[in-house]
Write a structure and sequence with these properties.
The protein is mainly beta. It has one domain: Sandwich (Jelly Rolls). Helix content is about 15%, strand content about 45%. The chain has 4 helices and 21 strands. It has a 7-stranded antiparallel sheet. The chain has a 6-stranded antiparallel sheet with strand order 2-3-10-5-8-11, with no helix packed on it. α3 crosses α4.
């Protein structure tokens, strides 16, 4: 069967003053996701156009730029977008402007903070505003990645509440992994992408700009045929409201899988 939880890059966009913003509601069948209030938007900006995005006082906002040239002006700082890049503003503290040097696209994820997120942020958090080109990120290895696959971590667990993010790139390879019961996942395809998304046997061919969702626990593959490229951003969101046990695991060198098992055991006793 065709995998249905995909927003295609060629969907109709309505431009006004060189800017188009389209919501991508892939949570339509999942009350569990709607519970969080998460929103994703595809944002397109014509060359020479500018936009001042809406500011959110109590949500973590992540912008993922597809690598076309542009810039972000945030207070006295200017961040130059020249490759796949990530930006997280400081809530509604500082307004920012996005400008396009060439036609560009970015995905904006909005993640409302819950009580655990707010308390954790007071205790420890990533410095904001945060800007990171992916080639400046830390590269890592993982068992589920096929040989020749490269991965970069952009935002690790607990740095900003429930949200984590990273990048995968490979030619003729990719990811083949068991579903993580503790994380929901969204994927954004980047320029040059030409691969197959397989979620427990349901498949969808993926190209630049396609955006997909995988519910927590679903086994999935993102694999390219020989000579074709896998290049995508993954954004994950922990499924449990309170991450105290996961946070404890992170400082005692236990794996997320072990932390999840402990959480389930504690939940069964409650």
């Amino acid at each position: 069967m065709d995998y249905q939880y995909v927003c295609r890059a060629d969907e109709v966009k309505g431009f006004e003053n060189g800017y188009a913003q389209t919501e991508m509601p892939l949570d339509r069948d999942f009350a569990e996701i709607q519970h969080y209030g998460i929103k994703f938007y595809r944002c397109n900006l014509k060359a020479g156009a500018k936009v001042m995005p809406k500011l959110y006082p109590d949500s973590i906002v992540m912008l993922v730029f597809n690598g076309r040239r542009g810039y972000i002006r945030c207070g006295e700082e200017t961040f130059h977008v020249e490759e796949l890049s990530f930006f997280v503003p400081e809530f509604d503290h500082i307004a920012y402007t996005i400008g396009a040097i060439e036609d560009l696209e970015y995905v904006m994820g909005v993640f409302p903070m819950n009580e655990w997120d707010r308390n954790q942020f007071k205790h420890w958090h990533k410095h904001l505003p945060f800007f990171k080109p992916y080639t400046q990120a830390v590269e890592y290895g993982q068992e589920c990645k096929l040989p020749g696959t490269h991965s970069w971590t952009i935002l690790q667990g607990m740095m900003l509440g429930h949200v984590t993010a990273g990048v995968v790139r490979a030619v003729g390879a990719g990811t083949d992994e068991k579903g993580h019961p503790e994380v929901h996942q969204w994927n954004y395809c980047l320029p040059g992408s030409d691969f197959t998304l397989d979620v427990e046997g349901d498949t969808a061919e993926q190209k630049e700009g396609d955006f997909s969702f995988i519910f927590a626990g679903k086994d999935h593959k993102l694999l390219a045929k020989p000579g074709k490229e896998v290049f995508y951003v993954w954004i994950e969101y922990y499924s449990e409201d309170d991450l105290t046990i996961y946070n404890k695991a992170s400082v005692t060198n236990r794996s997320p899988k072990e932390a999840y098992a402990e959480y389930q055991a504690a939940k069964a006793k409650a």
